[in-house]
Amino acid sequence: MEDTSAVRVSLSEVQLKIDGTTLAEHYEKAIAMRLLLQDISATMSLRVQAVETSLDASEAAYSTQLAAVEELVQTHKRMVAALDSMFAELKQRMVDPTMVGGEVGKTLFDFVDAETVVGLEHEANALVQTIRDQLKTNEESLQLLHATLSFYRGLDFNGLLSLPADTRGDIWDALAATCQERQQQALDCKTRQAALLETTLAKPDRPAALVHAASESSALAQAGLGAVTHLNSLYDIALEYFVDMEQCDRRILATFTKMHEASQAYDSAFIECQSIVEELSNLLRFYERFIHAYETLPNEIQRRRDYDAATDRLVEDMQRKLAERQEEEVRRREVYANDYLHFLPGSLCPSIKELPRTFRIVTDQPASTPQ
């Protein structure tokens, strides 16, 4: 009976020492697993932060694009409405037949290039649709990125994290805290078991104490193993998440590339549409001045008629005065010739026999006013 008790005591002492070695190994494994999980967690956390940062920038750019295109569309609508109103007014403005070679029924609308305006409006509408299509692509891409982020934020490590029940908290902080707790658990088990072995071996009733301590040591060894097992489970899950994230990263990169291409197409169409709207605005201002210019025609025509009439009177008066002067000069030269010419030799001052110069006023063909 004493031999059996001695064997039991000896086995208990051996078991205590084995547990101590095992717990030391568990602690080393816990440290190694925590470091591995720390590296994976840091990498995954940085990836999530990078996606969040890029997504924030993309959403800001999308909001700017959306506001810009809405403003452009409203400007285009106002321009089209103004041009439609302008065309309606031009159609109501009848043209004086005397201005168009006697043709009756002409309106100012007949003198504008309405087809060009309509063509520009259709082109602008097509570009606006292209812009909206690119914005739709970006909207869908943003939704996909949000879904991916929701997946990242929804990682719960199968409930193995020390996360408060009433709050979600930060998953990566929770993972770090859980890893630290399990490592500390392994250290506590190792420390307690070492202290247990030391105090047990020092007790006077060592045989009985060893048998009692063996049971407690076994529980500590199991607790240390549980900490390592917990960390191993977290590592396996984290590795799965890491692989999933690698695949998601490729999709994220493709999504951002797609958004970049859509934004380039948006910018190109937006600039072109802006140019067309500006051209329509210039046409509207031109037609406004066209109407104003037409309204000035009657006064200008009357002014020119008055000018022509006054000029005609001036020419008639000048022609009459020239004729009178010429007749007077001819008469005086005839008197001189009668009085003196037969006394003068023919070779002396032959020009004295010449008649006075005659003048006539010629009307030139009017030239067009430079445009």
What is the strand and helix layout of this fold?
Elements: H1 2-92, H2 114-153, H3 171-202, H4 206-340
Helix pairs in contact: 1-2, 1-3, 1-4, 2-4, 3-4
Detailed description of the structure:
The longest helix has 135 residues, at 206-340. Helix 1 runs antiparallel to helix 2, helix 1 (2-92) packs antiparallel against helix 3 and helix 1 runs parallel beside helix 4. The protein starts with a helix and ends in a 31-residue tail after the last helix. The chain is rod-shaped, with a radius of gyration of 53 Å. The protein is 80% helix and 0% strand. The protein has 371 residues and is an all-alpha fold. The chain contains four helices and no strands. It has helices at residues 2-92, 114-153, 171-202, 206-340. It has one domain: Substrate Binding Domain Of Dnak, Chain:A, Domain 2 (Up-down Bundle), CATH 1.20.1270.
